[in-house]
Each structure stands twice: as C-alpha cells, then as structure tokens.
Amino acid sequence: MKEHITISQLAQLMNVSVHQLRYFEEKGVLYPSHTEENQYRMYGLHEIYQLSHILLLRKLNVPVDQIQECMTSYAADDYNQLLEHSLQKVQAEIANLKMHEQFIHKVLEEHNNRTQQDDEYQVKRLGPRHLKLWFALENGQELTAGNLFEHRPAPPRLFENDLHYLSDAGQAKLCYETADVADYILEEGNYLYKHLSVIEEPEIDYEIKQMERYVAHHQYNCQSKIVLVEKSYLSMFDNNKLQYEIQVKVE
DNA sequence: CTTCTGACA
DNA sequence: TGTCAGAA
C-alpha cells in the first residue's frame, strides 16, 4: 500500500469532485501533503482527516471562505451554535417538504375524484373551514392581475390553495383557508356541490343560477349561501381551463 | 491515461 | 459547480 494518493483517488474516496478539491486549496483550507515532479498533488492520511473536517463544516452550511478561520479559531461553544443553527434549518426544510408532500397528495386526490365523476350535482361531507378575507370584488367586477397586485401581499402559496368566493351584499369576498384567526367560518356539514370547468367568466354566473334553480326544484333546505371555490392547481390537467367547485350547505 | 492551469457559463 | 482546451 502506498503512503499517498492522487487527487482523483481522494475525490473518489470522499465523494467530492476533483475540481472541489483544487477549489479548497485555492481557498487555503486543504493543501496536498506534497507535490511530485510532474506537479501532481499527493494526499496522505492527515489530509483525509482534514477533508472530513471541512466537509462536515460544509454540511453545517459554513461557506468555504470562512472554513479557514473556523478551523483555526473556533472553540467547542462555537461548534455547538453551529450545530444548533443547522438543526433549526433542517427542521424548517422538513416542515416545507411536509407541506409540499401534502399538496401533492391533495392534487392527486382531487384529480382522481375528478375523472371518475360526470360533473353532476353530488353531496359530500366537509369539515369546518376557517377562511380569511383577502379582499372584496364589487359586483360585476372581474378578477384581474391588477387587483391581485393592488391587494398584495397575496396569501401564502396562492396557487396551491383553494380560493373561496363568498357572495355578500353584491360583493364577492375573496378568501383563503387559514389556520389562525378566521373572518368567516364554513361549518362542517353536508354540501351539495358540482365541479365546473370554465372558459369564460360569465359561465360562472350561469352555473350559480343553475344551482339555485336545482336547489329550489329539489326542495333542499339550504343553510348557507352558495360558495364558489377556485382550484387553480387543477388547471394543468384540463387544457388550462379554470377549475371551480360550487358548494352550498344542505341539511 | 491522468493531472494541471486557467477560463468561462 | 461543472466543463473544456491545451500542455506537461
């Protein structure tokens, strides 16, 4: 067994790129034990340990430029803080990924429900929903990029959420689901609903009138106003047509 | 065939 | 960070 290994061997051993090793040298954090006549860098056991140390600091999000001072002047306390910060960051990433996972589940689920159904009126049970008001549209006023921008900041993850339109005294209240303080609460219960795939805005008014007529004809006991829910994330499945669901709580 | 340097996206 | 050319 030889005493020293080449840069590519070190790279293989430690799962980093050759380029990265030269970069470390440029930044003054890892030097070869010596170089040969042909200018090849050679590394020994000591360099392997040192590289491990560097790679660990990298995992703790220490920028390469600061590793130098870090390795020379850091005490045990500093490393503790480093680990604490790193832990917090990892936990935040996990939280984000969990939300991402939930979102994917939601989209898959809703899409699967969609293809089975035939766009008829149906009844389903919905849990309570806490809605926060974003802003209101005056009657007849259409949603535009402009008024979305006017009312910034937009709710978090706008395009991943169900936007609820509550009609109220000639206004359309634009709401989104929230975990904390709610402006409106949609109670748990059975909801008559129907999916809408919409190309032009006026179709919505027509469908709402249709539902009112349907409800009257079947003598449902409506316990709330009609709610329009926009599911923008479903548009990708259907030729970019806007996807809505109209709902009304029934007995 | 491997590595080095330097440059560039 | 990866890639590429030209040289050793």
TrEMBL record:
Keyword Transcription: yes
Listed GO MF terms: DNA binding
Pfam families in alphabetical order: MerR_1
Keyword Transcription regulation: yes
Alphabetic keyword roster: DNA-binding, Repressor, Transcription, Transcription regulation
Gene3D superfamilies (alphabetical): 1.10.1660.10
Sequence ranges assigned to domain HTH merR-type in this UniProt record: 4-73
Name of the protein in its database record: DNA-binding transcriptional MerR regulator
Annotated organism of origin: Paenibacillus peoriae
